[in-house]
Batch of 3 targets.
Target 1
Amino acid sequence: MGMMKSAEPLLDEKAIIAAAEKALSDIAEVRREVSKVIFGQERVVENTLLAILSGGHALLVGVPGLAKTKLVATLGSVLGLEASRIQFTPDLMPSDILGTEVMDQDETGRRSFRFVKGPVFAQLLMADEINRASPRTQSALLQSMQEYHVTIAGQHYDLPSPFHVLATQNPLEQEGTYPLPEAQLDRFLLQVDVGYPELSAERQILLETTGVTEAKPSSVIDAARLIDIQKLIRQMPVSETVVDAILAFVRSARPGHGNAGTDKNVAWGPGPRAGQALMLCARARALYEGRLAPSLDDVMALAEPVLEHRMALTFAARAEGMTVRDVILDLVKQARG
């Protein structure tokens, strides 16, 4: 998966800058529209949008009732994507997600099979409480996230383009949850932690959502435009300094690579997908923040959402009450020097 060699010819610098400036204003417009409906939670909105702009999937983690579902529905409207939603439950079967073969009979009595598509055939799929379903059902979804197609009875069906999954997960302390396997967590470009809103945002939520009318977001771009922006992001040049910083940072989070804190506390570290995620999302974040080139700051701001679900602590570190987040923040501090 070499990300540096783009299949498309690189645009010349002037054309890239012009295209990036157009993307900048589109993204700013998307941000404005989302903020009419989702109050506060700027980091959550930003990281979720960065995952989509970078062409990936995001895992939203937080207790129920923090507007995660509303955020996904809002993004569907604003980005002009066909959205669908699956509520994961312990009895959900893979076919409830992917679709099923049904038998039809015509007037002459001839029988044939017809495939009825499941809700996974959407451009933006909300997988609600993904860790409540059995591992078999989780992996049906996660496989389609990886491969962008579904195979039913030996037949191949391509998923729509673009295809993004925003999954929500309850914190693991909650009853009746199956943790997602590590290899499957790695398929999410970013993990987005959703906390409680700040006081001023919560006041706004109270006032705006308990009246007779609620603001409705309108569409700012469409699927085709989103795909253009995603292609552009892959073409944005990244300076040598930023590439080196990404590599150094990801490697510092792996035991056995010369970082004493990591060696002591980390059981296993992030694989190459973490570097790829930083490389893509740093470019998307630059545009999101109104800049034309990614900086070291972008890399450090993304360290947590990119690495948090891609590493695990040793038993000893967990026993001391450390969290993966503590370790990442420590590495960020060291990297900033």
Note: Residues 67 and 212 are 19 Å apart (CA to CA).
Target 2
Amino acid sequence: MDDRQAAAALVGEAEQAGETLARVRAEIGKAVFGQERVIELTLAAVLAGGHVLLVGAPGLAKTRLVEAMARVLGLDWARVQFTPDLMPADILGSEVLDQDDAGRRHFRFVKGPIFTQLLMADEINRASPRTQSALLQAMQEHHVTVAGAAYDVPRPFHVLATQNPIEHEGAYPLPEAQLDRFLLQVDVPYPDAEIERRILIETTGLEDQRPQTVLNGQALIRLQQLVRSMPVGEKVLAAILELVRSARPGSSHDPRVNQHVAWGPGPRAGQALMLAVRARALLRGRLAPAVDDVAALARPALVHRMQLSFGARAEGLDIDSLVDELAQRAA
């Protein structure tokens, strides 16, 4: 197959994928009302092969979103409620001592809930740092190590973690290394009045619409490969590079960044943007990402990879507004 035929095949596959993903979004929208941006960002992260940190107050349908995504994407899923007394073995699994009919004893590994395709880590900041870190190896390396033995998690494998931004008592803030493992941070807002009215009417009756399955694990993996095959233009690449470097103290031309940002995004932020802009373009029926995609994904890709200094927070400097300004300049 020559380059022209390969390009034509890629275009045809992307067009078909766009139609399929439109159905995926529509089915998820049956269960989660008025959160089109949240659905799009979460789907973009999954199509990019990454993990998502969902940040929002209780009662905003975060669990409902994860359940709907698992059903529509055709993935096995599990939910773990993170609490202060949760132990790493409660997530990873543990070895138990068995005895066979001949009286011989041996250890058998009993897999924990992490061995699923879509894992919901509910209120992840409630657990201790030791338990939080139990997810790190699986999120990055797609396997876990228990008692010196490695066990692969299923593929595809995605962690959708939730975090309550309001209540901080008894919580353990996620360390920078773990935050960096999340491809995107998605803020889940309150619904507007019309959407909330629809929620009240449609979710308190006898019938509750259940989304239908559109994909399966293998089809999702193929879409993830397609995302990585999509071309990225030089202007988009330059915008991503400029945005990431401008948010990093020491290499930024913005004095506020150099003065008030304690630490900035590393190369993994640029990798996240390179993948996420392709996924967003595919979700919107386009064959290649545009500079607008970079601006739209700047905040979800960068805010959890940056930290303002204490003095900047005391002066009221807002990290979201700063990232938005940097994105506008990069575009």
Note: The radius of gyration is 21 Å.
Target 3
Amino acid sequence: MTETQVETRTLAATGATLRYDIRSSPTDGETSESVLFLIGSPMGAGGFATLASHFTDRTVVTYDPRGVGRSPRTDGSAETTPEEHADDLRCVIEALGARAVDVFASSGGAVNALALVERHGGLVRTLVAHEPPSAQVLPDREAALEVCADIHATYLRDGMGPAMAKFIAVTSRKGPFPATWANEPVPSPSDFGLPTEDDGSRDDPLLGQNMRGCTGYRPDFAALRAASTRIVIAAGRESEGEFAARAAAEIAATLGTGLAVFPSHHGGFLGGEFGRHGAPEEFAKALRHVLDTDG
């Protein structure tokens, strides 16, 4: 088995201190053009431990996005935008001194990676954007955006439990949101084992920082088409009909590319992180196939 060395570095960015990890085998030496970024948002580096273990032949970089884990914000802002995340990613890539990198980006990370390619496509050779949850591209965009705004408002008003219950129900829902979505029954936090009492905290990065900025982001399709980056939009086989998978299908169709179908679900690469399991071995094989295939 190849021994992997992990080095953690710190980078001062505008409004945040970023921490990122570089995984390499002793034979890799310095980072090279084989660098593979694995990114999420708001999920940090810890969510990619299993997936990274399947790419010991490459230099793998993971990081905690601003406001998450080891990357505290220094600007006091309560929310963040894909543009800010894209600039953070640019800074990390440039700090590495690597040539164009490959990127696997999940969920909000996929939105941020699309924003990166729009602005700095020359830094990314291949982007695999897995289930970017952009409500703006959906046929039912108005209802979807209202639903996301309601989750954010619920969090600010009632706390994590009620807001997360709505989030789980929304993200697992099959099919579009009707205009009458507000008349539907409201899920109880206890249905999902979530706290029913409000502890007063409002520092959850998913519900507080990313909920509106990420889902409200509309890709610049002209910029994406003009970029030198090879863009692959992907979704999980089991996710068909769900919010993020529907958005992925719409983005792929607008770009004029086929949707890459990966094993498992939205978190198909997870191998027990956060108590969730996908099909990480099969997922890693599918990802490697995409990265190793030209065109």
Note: Residues 221 and 255 are 7 Å apart (CA to CA).
